[in-house]
Amino acid sequence: EGHLPGLPQTSWGQWNRAWCAEENRHGDILNRYLYLSGRVNMREVEVTVQHLIHDGGDTETGSDPYRGFIYTSFQELATRVSHLNVARLARKAGAEMLYTLCSRVAGDEQRHARAYKLFIAKFLELDPDGVVLAFEDMMRKKITMPARYMREKGAAAGETFRKFEVVATRLGVYTPADYVEILENLLKDWGIAGLAGLSPEAAKAQDYVCGLPERYRKVMARFRPQKEEEHVTFRWFLPPEAAGGRA
Asked: Nearest-5° angle of CA 194, CA 200, CA 205?
């Protein structure tokens, strides 16, 4: 494989470029599907994307590799879940092409997550105290998606993402229950509960993260949905009379 002279050819450099390239393809193919569907106001979509990139974001990892890979382990699993659920809804609606696209994207996200989880597993062998403390810190902050500041034209930062979360939860695309299941998956795969010989501070962090799934489930059990669902709208969609339905 060719590469530009001067670029670092370390294993991490090669991985990072390959990962970015795959993520870019996800955005490209879904963007083109939306365009060909004839149901979306692509100008408004591009305005939202422009705002998202221009405004920037913060994963709250502080450029720390432990926190960074804990974040990406969680985030890649979350995007896998959401793409699989969109695929399920697409098939139910008879949109087989969208089903295929989202299923393939979900497969990529699963492979990405597996790699990041292996990175953390190796870090745990070398520095269990540091990793567990980083895990606690990230879970206290709560894992939020990279698009959490997403906004449409004229909206405040994060306003559009909040509406998106409402719809995603309502449709079962990504829910609080998914968040808990992902956390349990990471706790199990990394063997956090079974770590021994931790420092007192790390042992407290271990107890905290291992107790989170039960705490979250108790909160969800007490939650009662509102009698009237919040009505949300997005600038992205064309009115029915203007939608072409080409894909």
From this structure: 60
